[in-house]
Design goal:
Layout lengths: L2 H14 L1 H39 L4 E6 L21 H6 L5 E7 L7 E5 L2 E5 L2 E4 L1 H7 L8 E2 L10 E3 L15 E9 L6 E14 L5 E2 L9 E4 H8 L6 E6 L4 H14 L4 E5 H44 L1 H9 L4 H42 L11 E2 L10 E2 L9 H27 L3 H6 L2
Length: 444
């Protein structure tokens, strides 16, 4: 029997036993669907994080913060009296020829600032003092707008707000006056010891950035020019300083990092955005392998089901096998026929699993935004708008994950489905091929 005839015979056997073939295929379909949906979502989530990360961090940037001892700082014990000041940006700018821009950020801890709208108090956590011109050069795609005009004067008291500040329940528009009240807290942190007010006009509204902000402009941010911010917060201590380099090579990054750390006797931590991105990708690669391993368990279960069904099929078709051998079919022909059957089941289950997995990943991807997005007012007006600036905070907003189904994922999904089907179908096929014609014909 030619190979094509063997394949055709196997196909007819699958068609004849549609119910059994369907139930067998279902196991493969579920396993492949689990793998495809989880990995497609993982790929989409990684791509979304990478995209948002690159919006907030150029791969040529370094972030300089005070060394608190929690980020692996080198050198002696961090000095609690050490601080980075806004003017330190001028010192850092002259440390290396590879430094093209230095932007200090002035942001107070998460106590935030209060605003009152329609008799209700709201807390805005992302109040950032920056030089608007330098900030725009650092983030040219996100700190730019057509709704209003971003002020250029270093002492201009007007502010720039993120898109969420212009939506319900605050609804600020260009030209509106906004009054911010910031409270200083004592050592206990329980009661405010002083308060500062800042009244300014909204000069511009940033377009919606979406997703989440790891750094840079945020949909929930309020931005003040650096000089008025120093007066408002009554301090010139910088929360972080962002350094833009002229190269993203490892050699340049390491050189500038060492120069800055040595300048401040290792009292600062210098974080490379490239290193952070590489770490994120490494974590996702590990998660991807872990997810694939967990989902692969369902394929093993499906394989056991295939073995069970094929053994039953061999028992039921013993007489048929005897007839085939009696008319000249060899052992390897019988083996091939049963393996072709499992191959067809594996291919069919894999194809259906890829389709089902894609649908599931698309549905769950669109649902993610509903779980992580904000925008409601659960505290009767006392709502908190959070966000990120130079170093290490994040805000989820309108996040939707678009699953990514790569050709590589499709290839390996089909391969796993087929390999599992053949491996677990091998024993039943071998058992069928070893039946003796006389014994097989005698069975009922």
């Amino acid at each position: 029997m030619r190979i094509l005839d063997q394949f055709s015979y196997a196909g007819n056997s699958v068609k004849t036993r549609k119910t059994r073939a369907g139930l067998t295929t279902l196991g493969i379909t579920i396993g492949i669907a689990a793998i495809v949906s989880l990995l497609a979502l993982s790929n989409g989530f990684q791509a979304a994080i990478t995209k948002q990360f690159e919006l907030g961090f150029s791969t040529k940037t370094l972030t300089v913060t005070k060394n608190t001892g929690t980020l692996g700082g080198i050198g002696g014990t961090p000095d609690p009296n050490f601080h980075l000041y806004v003017n330190d940006s001028e010192i850092i700018a002259g440390l290396s020829q590879h430094i093209t821009l230095v932007v200090p950020h002035l942001q107070q801890p998460s106590s935030g600032c209060n605003v009152t709208v329609a008799g209700k108090n709201y807390t805005l956590n992302t109040i950032v003092g920056v030089n608007f011109t330098a900030y725009g050069q650092l983030y040219p795609t996100t700190f730019a707008t057509t709704n209003g005009s971003i002020p250029t004067g270093d002492t201009n008291t007007s502010i720039v707000i993120g898109s969420n500040i212009a939506k319900d329940p605050l609804n600020y528009k260009v030209g509106d006056s906004i009054n911010l009240t910031w409270y200083e807290y004592g050592h206990t942190g329980l009661e405010p010891t002083d308060s500062h007010s800042y009244t300014a006009l909204v000069a511009a509204i940033l377009p919606e950035i979406g997703g989440f902000s790891l750094a840079g402009p945020s949909d929930n941010g309020v931005y003040i020019q650096i000089t008025p911010a120093i007066n408002f917060f009554n301090t010139n201590i910088s929360s972080s300083i962002t350094v833009l380099l002229n190269s993203e090579t490892k050699a340049v990054i390491n050189e500038v990092t060492n120069v800055i750390e040595n300048e401040y006797n290792h009292q600062v931590s210098v974080i490379s955005s490239t290193a952070v991105l590489n770490t994120i990708n490494s974590i996702f690669n590990f998660i991807t392998v872990f997810i694939a391993a967990i989902a692969g368990i369902s394929l093993v279960v499906a394989g056991v089901g295939i073995m069970n069904v094929q053994i039953t099929s061999v028992l039921e078709r013993t007489r048929e096998i005897g007839i085939l051998k009696a008319i000249g079919a060899k052992d390897r022909t019988i083996l091939s026929v049963f393996l072709f059957e499992t191959l067809l089941l594996g291919l069919l289950g894999s194809a259906l699993g890829i389709g089902v997995g894609w649908v599931l990943s698309s549905v769950f991807g669109s649902m993610i935004g509903g779980f992580v997005g904000g925008g409601s007012d659960p505290f009767g007006g006392n709502i908190s708008f959070g966000g990120g600036v130079g170093a290490a905070s994040s805000t989820f907003s309108n996040m939707s994950i678009s699953p990514i189904l790569t050709p590589n994922l499709i290839f390996w999904a089909v391969m796993f489905g087929v390999i599992i089907a053949i491996l677990f179908g091998l024993y039943p096929a071998y058992r069928a091929s070893r039946l003796k014609p006389v014994d097989a014909l005698r069975s009922e």
